[in-house]
Amino acid sequence: MNHITLDQYCNRDSFIHRLDARTTFLFTLLFIFTVVSSPPGSWLAFVFYFTVISILILVSKLPIGYVLKRSMVIVPFVVVIAIFVPFLREGEIIFSFEIWMIRANITYEGVLVLETVLIKAWLSILSIVWLTSVTKVTSLLRALRRLHFPGVLVMIISFMYRYLFVIVDETLRMKQARDCRSLGGNRLRQLRSIGSIIGTLFVRSYERSERVYYAMVSRRFDGEARMQDSLVLKKVDIVFGVCLFGLIITVALCNIWILRW
Predict the structure, then answer these.
(1) What is the pLDDT of residues 66-99, one digit of tens each?
(2) How far apart are CA 99 and CA 113, in angstroms?
(3) Which of 51, 122, 180, 238 yields a CA-CA distance of 20 to 30 A from 82?
(4) Lowest mean pLDDT among 5-14, 136-145, 190-199, 223-232
(5) Whether the predicted model's global pTM rises above the 0.90 cut
(6) Which helix H or strand E contains 103, and what residues bound it?
(7) How far is CA 243 from each of CA 87, 178, 240, 249, rounded to the nearest angstrom?
(8) Distance between CA atoms of 139 and 25, rounded to whole angstroms?
(9) Cα(29)–Cα(50) distance, rounded to whole angstroms?
């Protein structure tokens, strides 16, 4: 089985790794909320947020290349979604061109929104990468339950993480079988088989879910996951949370006040 673990660096020895999972999760939640709610053009605030998350990454002793590689995965998807914003946003036109009978205008406000969206998305995913790298998935699930998140949601996340490796392993076996039967066929022929692989993978995943469900019912599963609660909220968690929470909220309020005046 190919184990692509999200928390492969969670066992490193650092001050951050010893924090309670609830502290790191709530901080990440607040960090993403403040970043996303920042008005367009809040460059000083974005620099501050980047500085904070960079310091946490360095203190956590995480490989910089690993963090950057994982955080940049989201950028292409954001670009695809937000690439049309400069054309749709009204405002001062900075560039204009004509395609057949249609005139497209790129506005300053649209470019500003596009840049802000890219920065917000990257900072948010950077904080998520930090969270999943310093906190075990099992501890994170326990933290969600202690924070009274819906049990169904926590159950779905746990199943997704558990069987993600199984699905990846199944996909690699199907790809290997396709390559063995293609005998060096061209790329076009291999691309045509992707649809069949996706369909077969969906059917196999559905059948596997049915078998897992019947196995759980036969063992008298009542819908409540039993987890060994090993979370302990210490003084260092309270100090860390209060200091960073207060600092981020203060910067967010100051940024809003500066932009208004």
Answers:
(1) 888 888 888 888 888 877 777 777 766 676 666 6
(2) 23
(3) 51
(4) 223-232
(5) no
(6) strand 102-107
(7) 42, 55, 5, 10
(8) 10
(9) 15
